Every structure is written in structure tokens, then in C-alpha cells.
Write the C-alpha cells for this entry.
Amino acid sequence: MGRAGQGGTFPEQPDGCGPLQALAKAHLNGELETWPLILVRHAKAKPRSSWTKAEGSRPLAVTGLRQALAVERLLGVWKPLRIVSSPWARCVSTIAPYAKSAGAKVKLVEALTEHHHQRSPKKTAAIVEGLFDKQRGVALCTHRPALPTVLKTLGERMGPSFTRCCRPRIRTWRLAR
């Protein structure tokens, strides 16, 4: 039985590490065609009910500002060098700490806003589909109403195991008298 770097037949190893070692070998040989696609829902925003200005300018709440710093740390693990985001303030503020610290390129896309998604979910789906074109790490920041479209589009690309993993959980409550 071989060891990593010695050209063995990894999957037959009795310790069960064969697939992991094969993955490591493929990485070392530059044979992997993988890259991270990180989906971010914006951090907590100020309540709609207390915001009287344009919806797109509604900022993060204090809690959301702290969450944006946590997003910075999480994105730092994967290091995407490009970010595709809704241009609305709460999305931009969520990804700004990471974009600044990492020097990541940010592309603001109207199709990822709540309003645009409501009018044309197909355009939102097309943006998600376009993330696969460059085959480089990317983070996508959008809003809750767009998430079903985003997840459906990702599922069509990534197959049934992704779809099973990410389908919405439906809870049924039985009320007794």
C-alpha cells in the first residue's frame, strides 16, 4: 500500500483514509477543479418598521455590525478574491470589512436586491449561474427573499445531494385539544 506522494493505491487502505489521501495527492498535483462559492445573507439590519427612507439604504443594526466582523473572519478562511453583492446598504456593509482587509474585488449587482428579485427571479438565477463561469473563489451576498432562487440554481448545478442538504425544512405542528 502506498503513502501520499509515493504513488500507491489509496482507496484500498484499511484505515479508511484513502479518499482523503487521494484528494491531497490530487491537490498537490494541481488536478483539482474546485473552488469555494460562499453564500452570505446580509447581517441583521435595522427593522423595516422603524426605517422611513428608501429600502436600499436601510443599514445594519448594531448587532449586524458585529456580525459583519464575524463574516470577515469566516470569509478569511476561504479567501474569495471576488464578491458579488446586492448594492443595498445592508449587503455592502456585511461584506465591506472582509473586502477591505482582503483587497477583494466587489461587484454590485441590482439583480440580487429584494425588489429586483421579486420582479425577475430569472435574472437573479442568471447571476448565480454566472458565478460558475470564472471557476474562482467567490462570495455572494444577497437577501432572504432571494435565497430560494439562489439555492435552487445552485442545486441545479451541484446535483441531488446539494438539493437534499439545503432544501427548506418544513415543520408541522399538531395541535391537540
